[in-house]
Amino acid sequence: MLSKPIKEMTILEKTNMAYDLMKDDDAVKGQAAQVETLLEKLKSEDITVAVIGQFKRGKSALANRILGDDVLPVGIVPITSAVTKVRYGKRQAEVHYENGVVEPVEFERLHEFISEQENSNNELGVQSVELKTPSKFLKNGLTFVDTPGVGSYHKNNTEVAYEHMKESDAVIFLLSVDSPINQIEIDFLKNTKEFAAKFYFAVNKIDVVSEAELKAYTDYCGMLLKQLMGKDDVRLFPVSAKTGQGIDDLKDAVLRDCKKNTREIMEASTAKKLADVINSAATQLDFYWSAMNLEYKELDKRFAAINKTLEDVRSKADACEGNFDVHLNEYKLMLSETVKDLFGMEYHYEIDTVRYGVIDMDREDFLKNVDDLCDDLTKTLDRILLYREENAYTVCHRINAINRLSRNLRRIRDSLTGERR
After folding, report:
1. What is the number of structural domains in the chain?
2. String of DSSP letters for 93-162
3. pTM assigned to the model
4. Second label for 171, Cα 20 to 30 Å away, from 197, 326, 399, 411?
5. Helix, strand, coil tally for the chain in percent (to 5)
């Protein structure tokens, strides 16, 4: 029984409650991991500030100006094709791959991994690039993020930008005087405001227009942004990433808010993100019900396909002669994708970090881990889908548990969305 009504709980208490509800249910294991991340960020007050917007607005050049360090490559063609995270510390660069490998690289080589020309459609499988620099802007613990631009020819860039906007707590939304706000930017802004709690609207390239032209542009944009954001206190920051004009005003505003209003920003951001994760969990449970209610003939067919995949994994593992940590991560990704294809369900695996050039696993451990991975997937799918389960009590207990989980998660979500109206 709850100690107090949900509507009286703090954001931290609601987030804890959502995690406790989901953490032991395999059907929403992925969403539980997301909520756990929200909890960690909320407790540590680790604010993520992202620069986002349409391609070729000058995001990377602006980021370099804000950081006071030319750490991000810039160019006349779309450069940023992967998320780049920057934190405070001794200057270093690492490439994080989707398969868990982390490779240290020289700053001069970054374009090889985040340039659309050199890593087209992310053929290298880069998950993110993580940099450290002793920038005063980052000294108090901010994580600064440069994202791919939306709306370019490269569809992958837009998809990455949309996915990462969900992680941002505060956003520098970059516009440019050489183009009025367009529908691509409007749609992106509408989506972004569902996740980020604080917005700073920067208008770039002011060095190429007159004061009269700038005023006309900012008056028009200000009016439109007030309508889109549903508030009257929208402020625009005219800047030039080329000359540095206006950068200090933008930096000061971000740092002032992140210092004085950290808790407020993090709670508002967490509330938005938690509501989205709960919606995702509800969708996942719908897919779960659909899969669980398949006819036995269809379930037999799909379980046979899973078993064939598991045989292939074991066969590949037997043939492996090295890079065991990497291969184990790749099998996790493959099995997760297979479950999604066959049952429409997200199956969450933790992808272990593999430091470039470091060997942590021998062949014997690798083969045992592969066997455990395969056995665990079979048992979990049998359990959550009640495959061939004949015990009526077990079936009823599972159905009641899912109904109870759905009901409690909806109560938390409704309390969050009610607060935001």
Report:
1. 2
2. EEEEETTSEEEEE-GGGTHHHH-TTTSGGGTT-EEEEEEEE--GGGTTS-EEEE-PPBSSS-HHHHHHHH
3. 0.88
4. 411
5. 55, 15, 30
Q: Is residue 9 helix, strand or coil? A: coil
CB 182 within 8 A of CB 208: no
Instruction: Mark whether 249 and 388 lie in a shared domain.
Output: no
**Coil, strand, or helix at residue 163?**
helix
Residue 348 and residue 308 in one domain = yes
> What's the CATH code of the domain at 233?
3.40.50.300
Q: Whole-angstrom Cα distance, residue 415 to residue 421?
A: 10
Rounded to a whole number of angstroms, the distance between the first and last alpha carbons of the chain is: 28
- Indicate whether 21 and 83 sit together in one domain: no
Instruction: Among 260, 295, 324, give the residue marking a domain's end.
Output: 260
* Helices 363-385 + 296-319 axis angle, to 10: 170
Place of tokens 């620069």: 51
Instruction: Flag whether 1 is in a domain.
Output: no
* Structural domain harbouring 91: 47-260
Place of tokens 């396909």: 305
Residue type, 297: K
Q: What is the pLDDT along the chain (421 residues), one digit of tens a residue?
A: 456 788 889 999 999 999 999 999 988 999 999 999 999 999 998 899 999 888 778 888 999 999 999 988 875 444 556 788 999 999 999 999 999 999 999 998 988 888 777 777 788 888 899 999 999 999 988 999 988 767 544 555 566 767 777 889 999 999 999 888 888 888 888 988 999 999 999 999 999 999 999 999 999 999 999 999 998 889 999 999 999 999 999 999 999 999 899 999 999 999 999 999 999 999 999 888 888 888 889 989 999 999 999 999 999 999 998 899 999 999 999 999 999 999 888 888 999 999 877 777 899 999 999 999 999 999 999 888 887 777 888 888 888 989 999 999 999 999 998 754 4
